[in-house]
């Protein structure tokens, strides 16, 4: 069962790929952004941009969006909104919405 953790964890060393990183979107710097892009497939990066655009259109603050990457349980990027049940992953060429440990494919890339 895959889940996206929505926790405010401090940024850990990027070289420690065995640990999942969960970072507030507003705290992602250019170096971390490049790490996320290089460490994921083109489809996952496109998916990530798509969901972030959706959040921007919905006027969700960057400080309320958490991004999970380098997680051995997610073959891609996890995204969620603090204090909600909105959790998504960008995996296997699709955007997945998660609820109660189950996902629903929302869009393919």
UniProtKB/TrEMBL annotation:
Keywords: Signal
Signal peptide: 1-20
Protein name: Uncharacterized protein
The organism's taxonomic lineage, starting at the top: Bacteria, Pseudomonadati, Pseudomonadota, Alphaproteobacteria, Hyphomicrobiales
Domain of life: Bacteria
